[in-house]
Amino acid sequence: MTNTGERRLDVTPSPQLTAITAERFSGKAWRRYNGYAFAAKENLIALVAAELANAVPAMPVGFVQTGEGFQLVAVTGLEPAVNLFVAPDGRWLSSYVPATLRGYPFRLVKVEGREESLLCIDEASGLVVETGLGEPFFDETGQPAQALKQVLEFLSQVERSRMATEAAVDALAAAGLIQPWPLNLKRGEQQVAVTGLYRIDEAALHALDDKAFLGLRASGALPVAYAQLMSINQLTVLERLAQLQAKLQAQASRVVQKLANLEGIGLSQDDGTLKFDSSLTVAKKVYQ
């Protein structure tokens, strides 16, 4: 089997976000997402340490290099812009959904010169609607509505864990424990090298002296390191999902072809699986 070409994996750039203010959104509402089609091209998804206990049994975990160091991510596909965990109809094909996705279409954004982050929304999501068609952003007094407060609290929990996670990952990098993760993607009789991913250097971890090891323990970095190592076995999940995706695509093509031969019949969208409100319940359990 020959090795040819290369696939480099990078985190999907953030969408253009709009700060949520009473002036801009007081006469508008938002709808909860009903599927994960919005994440269908995200093959690397940011994770925080607090969710690793739930993420590791479901998906491989690694690191990617950013302009500021390394970032902890869930690996949901080994090809650019292909998320194997999202079915053609938008369903999520796993037992765990990363917190970053459960916050969609909202995100907390740090602003230079401000101590507090701004709650923002992706207006291109199609989930911003007129009043009466969804959850209001603000109540009659101009204060954030209860549902928006829940969103803010959830994302604030994630952000607090993200800060601790960044410190832990920085400690692992400073100790020289993060190394390139050599992977190959099968394409028929050929193998394509996958680059851009990093993993823990297990040999270097075991070779640490007592002082360095205790320093990592104090920084909270050891659970992240061991979780990443344990998750490597979940690469087989990607293989099974690739096979499942091929079957789902074939089934969808057959259904479309049958419907195309009939008159007066249209396709309807599945309601999806995990709604944001039920996700909040899961998130609270994770971050307690």
Describe the structure.
This protein has 9 helices and 14 strands. A hairpin with a 2-residue loop joins strand 12 (183-187) and strand 13. Helix content is 36%, strand content 20%. The chain is of the alpha+beta class and 288 residues long. The longest helix has 29 residues, at 146-174. It has a 5-stranded antiparallel beta sheet. The protein has a 3-stranded mixed beta sheet with strand order 1-13-12, with no helix packed on it. Strands 2-8-7 form a 3-stranded antiparallel beta sheet, with helices on one face. It has helices at residues 22-25, 52-55, 99-102, 146-174, 202-206, 210-219, 221-231, 235-260, 276-287; strands spanning 2-8, 18-19, 28-30, 44-46, 61-66, 69-75, 106-109, 118-121, 128-130, 135-136, 178-180, 183-187, 190-195, 197-200.
